[in-house]
Design brief:
The chain is of the alpha/beta class and 189 residues long. The chain is built from five helices and ten strands, in the order βαββααβαββββαββ. The chain has one domain (8-188): Rossmann fold (3-Layer(aba) Sandwich), CATH 3.40.50.2020. The longest helix has 14 residues, at 51-64. The chain is globular and about 40 Å long.
Length: 189
Amino acid sequence: MSAVTDILVGTGVDPDSADDLARVAELVRSVPDHPEPGVLFRDITPVLADGAAFAVVTTELAAHAGDAELVVGVEARGFLLAAPVALVAGVGTAPVRKAGKLPAVAASRSYDLEYGSATLELPAGVVEPGTRVYVVDDVLATGGTAAAACALLTDAGADLVGFGALMELPALNGRAKLGGLRVDALLRG
């Protein structure tokens, strides 16, 4: 696997973590034409498989969770980050799932994707009004999924403290769909 030179350490990260995050950036694999021609997919699997890199990502995102009471992971790769981030932050975690995956649903939200439409669902009984929530996903791209997850949580009465991602693709301007919500992206690609 060769180093990915077009991925940079994000702004606002702990300067003491910058060198470690540069190593994390080298582990991200770029896969051209996936899932369709013209798309450059950023595969974080090698980051997750490297214990030291995974620890850096988890610790850095947990530091951004601040006073959150709950870390919510967005399906599906967001789950892989949200649970350890919550553990390090000392709080609980919950998923925002694709439609039809939960046995009890508190609320749902449909939204448009680049390739169609989708629906996200929030499990019943995990987010009480006023709960301070930090939302985590793997990559912030066009922002459709992130915005839908955040809107779903806001509709449930959650107080969003921020959105964290391992990587942001700034050229796709997904951050704009999150309005004024603080975005913590460890890498930019």
